Fold this protein.
Amino acid sequence: MSENFNYENAIVELEEIVRKMENNELDMDSLTQQLQRAKTLIKCCKDKLTKTDEEIKKILEDE
């Protein structure tokens, strides 16, 4: 993802994908595409959380 990655927007998009899946709104082709997108978003969110955690720990150590 780009430098402009926004965690909150990614969560909203993931929630929308889940909603569509739960409501059977996706055909097979769309389902595969949306699962790939969800996988990418989850990885980016996980990376963002890890980076933020490391930054917080560093800030706290510096005090």
DSSP finds two helices and no strands in the chain.
